[in-house]
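Researcher: I'd like a candidate sequence for this fold, 366 residues long. If you have to choose between options at a position, lean toward the conservative one.
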């Protein structure tokens, strides 16, 4: 017993100066904030149908040809699935065959992608800004700043029937390469914006967002849903009607950290969960001191962030959960898209897309 107490005292003596040093040291560009009061540490929302072994139902598509396929856009007329890759290429995958073709090099890191009415592609390029790729594969920059503030991490994107583009800048302070610093600081550096191709004007619609991510236009074109990753919530922004310009809660207290969101044309939004909520992340969220400690340690030692229980949740147009797909071995899945009878999904780290045959899924047919 005495030996045990002596060991604990020795550990305390070693840790005490470390704790004191962390408490006293204030980095110039990093100041972790407490979580907003509306953030919930209580029980997460649940889904009535849940497949917790999604990897067992998944098959790989384009293995080795698709480094970090982050978001997905489907061209039903051409039978192509488009995705932005870590090497700057937009690649397309034939559906259902799975053949991969290099389509266009955008430079930077393309994240969100959506089809334009003319058959081109709108790209949220994390490193460059909002881009347009013509059907002839010509790449143009549409915008890279708003209100005099440059984008640092252009992220999610969608487009309305009239051609107005809605997109997010996850952070005006941190780039994709150190986006975890933005998460650890837990300050609202994100914005939701619109771009009008007719005027070339970029407008800020909502600011002070916590890692603003995916965007999806509602089927009636009257509103959009946008995700805030670290807050584990999605909100509705009204773009038309009596409520134009206002924000409402769509869903919060998600079981994981939302990334991209897509409407499937059949009554459901599919929200990617890049990682599940864990005890470790709850501790970091609760205590800014721990986040500062992690930040300082990462200055000298690379700390691996390995989220697990990643996946997706499908919800109705009113935000009611319908089904969920997760797996303990899944991490950093970023975009899920329903195409016919299959559910396709991408990732920041894998070199392929995955797909699930929904006709064989217990989460869809119980």
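Model: Candidate sequence:
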């Amino acid at each position: 017993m005495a030996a045990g107490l002596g060991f604990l005292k020795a550990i305390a003596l070693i840790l005490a100066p470390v704790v004191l040093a962390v408490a006293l040291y204030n980095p110039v560009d990093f100041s972790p904030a407490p979580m907003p009061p509306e953030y919930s540490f209580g029980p997460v929302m649940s889904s009535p149908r849940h497949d917790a072994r999604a990897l067992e139902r998944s098959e790989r598509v384009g293995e080795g040809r698709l480094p970090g396929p982050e978001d997905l856009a489907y061209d039903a007329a051409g039978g192509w699935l488009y995705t932005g890759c870590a090497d700057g290429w937009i690649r397309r995958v034939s559906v259902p065959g799975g053949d991969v073709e290099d389509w266009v090099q955008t430079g930077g890191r393309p994240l969100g992608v959506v089809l334009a009415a003319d058959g081109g592609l709108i790209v949220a390029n994390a490193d460059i800004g909002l881009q347009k790729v013509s059907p002839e594969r010509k790449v143009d920059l549409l915008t890279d700043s708003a209100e005099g503030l440059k984008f640092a991490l252009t992220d999610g994107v969608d487009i309305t029937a009239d051609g107005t583009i809605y997109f997010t800048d996850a952070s005006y302070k941190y780039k994709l390469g150190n986006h975890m610093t933005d998460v650890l600081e837990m300050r609202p550096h994100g914005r939701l914006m619109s771009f009008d191709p007719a005027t070339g004007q970029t407008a800020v619609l909502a600011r002070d967002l916590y890692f603003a991510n995916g965007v999806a236009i509602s089927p009636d074109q009257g509103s959009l849903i946008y995700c805030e990753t670290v807050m584990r919530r999605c909100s509705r922004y009204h773009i038309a009607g009596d409520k134009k310009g206002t924000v409402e809660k769509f869903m919060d207290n998600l079981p994981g950290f939302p990334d991209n969101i897509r409407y499937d044309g059949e009554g459901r939004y599919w929200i990617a969960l890049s990682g599940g909520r864990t005890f470790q992340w709850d501790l970091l969220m609760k205590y800014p001191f721990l986040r500062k400690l992690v930040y300082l340690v990462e200055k000298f030692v690379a700390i691996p962030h390995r989220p697990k229980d990643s996946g997706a949740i499908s919800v109705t147009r009113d935000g009611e959960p319908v089904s969920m797909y997760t797996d303990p071995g899944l991490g950093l899945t970023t975009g899920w898209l329903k195409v016919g009878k299959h559910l396709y999904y991408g990732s920041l780290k894998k070199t392929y897309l995955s797909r699930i045959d929904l006709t064989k899924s217990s989460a869809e047919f119980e």
